[in-house]
Amino acid sequence: MTLHLIKLCVGIAQFEELVAWQQHRQRKDGVLQHITSMTPRRGDELLKGGSIYWVIKGHIQARQKLLELRPVTDAEGIAHCALILDPKLVRTQPHPRRPFQGWRYLKAEDAPRDAGKGKSGGKNEMPLEMRAELMALGLL
Question: Given 60, 80, 86, 88, which residue has the most CB atoms within 10 angstroms?
Answer without folding.
Answer: 60
